[in-house]
Amino acid sequence: MVPRGGHIVTTTDCYKETRMFIETFLPKLGITPTLIDATDIAGLQAIVNNHGVSMFFTESPTNPFLRCVDIKLVSEICHKRGTLVCIDGTIATPLNQKALALGADLVIQSATKYIGGHNDVLAGCISGSMKLVSEIRIMHNLLGGTLSPVHIFRGNPLMLFLRTGHGIAE
Question: In which family does this protein belong, per the annotation (predicted)?
Answer without folding.
Answer: Belongs to the trans-sulfuration enzymes family.
